[in-house]
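quick one, two chains, predict together pls
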Amino acid sequence: MCKPDQHAVAPLSLLTRVQYDATISDLLGDNSQPSLSFPAENEVSGYNNNTEVHIANPLLVEQFMDAAEGIASRAVAANLATLAPCTGTSTTDQASCGASFVKSFGKRAFRRPLKDDEAQAFNTLFSGLNATRGYSAAVELTMQAILQSPQFLYRMDSERAPTPETGAVALDSYQLASRLSYFLTNSMPDSALFAAADAGTLSSAAEIETQARRLLETSRAKAMVRDFNQQWLMLDQLSGLARNPPDGMADVKGIGSDYRESLQQFLDQAFWEKGDLRSLFLSPTTFVNARLGSVLGLAAPANGFASVDNAPGRVGLLSQPGLMAMLAHSDQSGPVQRGVFVRQRILCLEVPPPPPGLNPVAPDPDPNLTTRERFDVHTASPNCSGCHKLIDGTGFGFENYDQLGRYRTVENGLPVDASGEMLMTGEPAVDGPYSGVAELSNRLALSPRVERCLSTNWYRYAMGRVETEADGCSLREVEQKFSASGGQFKELLVAVTLTDAFRYRPAISGDM
Amino acid sequence: MSRVRINPELSRRHFLRAVGGAAVALPLLSSLRAAADGESFPKRLVLMYTPNGVISDAWWPQNITSETSWDLNTIHQPLAPFKNRLLFLNGVDLTVTNDGPGGLHQKGIGGLFTGQQLQSGDLFVDGCGQRAGWANGISIDQELAKTLAVGTPIKSLELGVRATENDVQGRIAYAGPGAPLPPMNDPSEVFQRLFSGFGQNTDQLAELRARRKSVLDTVQAQFKSVSARVSASDKQKLEAHMTLVRDLETRMAASGNGSAACVAPSVPVAVDATSEDDMPTIAGLHLDMLATAFACDLTRIASFQISTSLNHIRYPWLNSMGEGHALSHMGPSDDDARKELVSRQTWHSQMLANFLTRLSQIPEGSGTVLDNTLVLWGNEVSEGNTHSHQSIPFLMAGGGWYFRTGRSLQYSNNSHNDLLVSVLNAMGVPATTFGQPDLCGGPLSGLV
């Protein structure tokens, strides 16, 4: 164990919309994405699976009911004979068929075998409904109840056993199966995971690792990595992206989704094909479709996306058109957004709070200054300079990319000055003046701090919460393994599944 | 004064949320109700929020010679037909923001309708590194829903126009400390929730209720049994969830009381709830459906927010291409920014005017629904360039059954908690404090 006295908590976590839809799809083959009408999750630091703020609210609970009704109605209409086959017609026969349905469907929905009292509660519901409303309605309504029960809606990784507990408690096989599947596939355990849980083999590190590596090869894992990237990089900002087209360019309404897809394809390739942190920062590839091709001046296919290698100014994640367009103003580049992004999301450096009593108010910008000169006001004002030297210094190096993510060496007839300065990153190899994104990316690609920051972000995503002191030991382990692997993403993810924080929870006190 | 019912069976419209999320109606012989003089009708409250302050000298009334003699300023020209229904409240401060954690926008929006500070913690970090949690208390709409919304199918409606910031900067309504309510941004979801099931008959409704009751009873029993097997903090979460399931079950029995205007609107056009260009359409659809929901008594409590604090939104339909928050920093000293901001804020007024117009067209007894509705409109700061929490642009519309309207009142550093107390009183709750009690001196003077 990491620390015998200190155990990271494993709070109940409510399924996110992504998880709800994937789970319904795997459970019933229903791909209707019922969560489209659910309210958006609250977010902490970009993450929408944070157990502290993603909690039930009246609208969501109402939508859970609506969704359950729709799902059960479709399932029974299409698949009654497979879901709850029954040849007998007597009440006893049907009660027995109902009990089989409760047992088999309930186990997959709850991600563990039903406890006796649970089975009994649903059997009672079923029998009552069967007597008054008939077999098919009884199956349908019992399914509705299962789909609105906490054992379905919440990942109950830390449900206690009846026996008294102390210290760190190992998650049981079913809980581990759930943890693995929701972390790596954002869905319920597949049949192989259920089989492993049934056999009780998931307790060993070797078996967890085998399962984790297997899950990483599934298509749901691809979707999960996209979901992570969406949150880590806060790509929500690309929804409804509004950019003023420069003179002569057609309206760019709706282009945010093209940028997002381009960026996600880049990130897919970095994760699944190239596989390591260095490629993420240094890969020379850009993905464009016809619309982006015309905006960026790159050759592109008539339909779909194609990769372009070594286009001018394209080196790694930080030079991606989608990212640069996202981190900008509607009519000009965004040194502040870019600086904040690199420091917070890539380096995990928090913006220091302003001095107590200071109301930070930005000065009126002077329209007669250049972008760079205008933003220099930040660093000249003593109230702002503390923060903004750090932020703007980082962001000025991105001046080669305009608000549409186009690469430029000239702005308004003047050569672009893409010199920036990294300050107080805690790493001498990263700190110091730099010119352009390529130079910065070369530093970041080798930075232990960047490795640690990405480890932290994955850890937050995997655990659904911000780390605490009690996570220190587990998180260090992840960082070390990631670093030792040469920055291989899959090794990072596997390492998370092998931590104590992933496999154990604190004892829950009290009588049952 | 109690409601006169000639025949409860005839004078009732029955509503129930149906499969797929819907309210269901039976035809009403509305003439029976219209004839009933002396009825009292349910009171409704709408909280309206617009962000990033206002251009004060185009917002507050001008040519004031007395509290009843004044002219509407530029921004409020759209509200001219309702001038005698308005109450401008100058000099009311968000005193609650003087202390406590969080940035200026964060604590402004969190305190606006809760009268509470933000919780400490580092859940949310604003652009200046300020840290805070959610607001530390219930908002006034939800407090009123406890008494006002009994017996309505929907406890309250939270509506947003591109209110897509899912943290403290984006929430105005709270069910309790740390329990924000998310707004619905897509009109088609609102339609689905309110109207898609209109037209089922009583037998179908009774069957639907019975089915839901048996399902939800079992669900609640599951919550109870699972709660015993989890940690104390998880148990709290599950119990809160179970309470919401119970509330859902209770509201199934609720019926709406319809007026002649209780007619389901047509299915709204599809919009992109993340697109700036669609904001006018979304706002119009939301407010039209809200008016109908009031007419049908589907709900009595609502909030309506146009975007969120610190947004970067342009208003292309007004040819205003500045980014919301940054633009607000530039007014009023920059002429172009000032023009843009005035046109945006005038558009906000226009939305309110359109809503009041709709309400005033829905007959209720011898008057209209507007006679029984109060709108409280506020902002998380007074001006975008100063970020001041003094003299917040507070405007009330309606509430004529309680407030003496048609006036522009001048206060001096009064805490807005007192305003919230006044609103509670107007809605029939005899409170003397709301939010942080030490900031309350009773209701604002001179309102009634």
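Residues 183 and 270 of chain B are 18 Å apart (CA to CA).
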